[in-house]
Amino acid sequence: MKIAVLSDIHSNGEALDSVMREIVRHGVGRIYHLGDLAGYNAEPEKCVRWAMEHAAGGILGNHDAVACGKASGEFFNAPALTAARWSAGQISAEARDYLRSLPDSLVVDKELLLVHGAPSDPDQYLFTLDDAVEELDGLEDTPEIRVVFYGHTHVPAAVVRRGDGSTVTVAPGSYRLNEGERALLNPGSVGQPRDRNPDASFLVFDTGSGSASWIRVPYDIQACQKKVLAAGLPRLFATRLPEGT
User: CA 49, CA 44: separation in Å to the nearest integer?
Assistant: First the structure.
């Protein structure tokens, strides 16, 4: 079965609409999200409602935690905290309850682990190979886990532990897991990419073949920018979108 994995949608309704059209084109059977439906951009209710209606499962992101009142955001920078608190005031009670119900991790089909940041810590950013190696080492007690899907960094990435025990980074694009391999796969961000490519990013994974494909989708950035500015959110969140930073 093909599944779609989305992360860091961040209230970007335009990007989400474009991604959903592409998901339909790929014939995906199930959709999962890795958190941060809210924050930064201007349509948190729309994005949370999308998850409620379309996602087979999902994870609580750190911005979601502030938006639903489960966290204070004490370690956020000032603009991010402003946006997360703004999101909290925009979402319905039903959306808030949905966010509050999301777990920190989720196992799918016994071999796929979904997290927001890292298996060991939902708030950890996995940027380096050393960090990824440490996380893979920590999974030795759960050999049934074949793939960890993680987000939080807004950067597509793949780290593969091969059958001989070596660990390597793989350029996101397409990759097929070989027998005995396990991987950490980051789909990138739908709503605020930070790899200098402004196109929305998500991942399609074939649970049968072990094939992963990263998909990039252009969307109406100007429409999203206008909504951010009209909402009175920090201008930074509008200006960074076309830069992919």
Answer: 8
Angstrom distance (rounded) from CA 175 to CA 170:
8
Q: For position 12, what pLDDT does the model report?
A: 98
Task: Write down the domain spans for the chain.
Answer: 2-243
Would the pTM count as exceeding 0.90? yes
Pick the CATH number of 2-243 from 3.60.21.10, 3.90.230.10, 3.30.70.100, 3.40.50.1820: 3.60.21.10
Q: What does the pLDDT read at residue 118?
A: 98
Nearest-5° Cα angle at 127, 175 to 168: 40
CA distance 150 to 48: 19
Rounded Cα distance between 25 and 20, Å, is 9
User: Is the alpha carbon torsion for 127, 130, 131, 137 positive or negative?
Assistant: positive
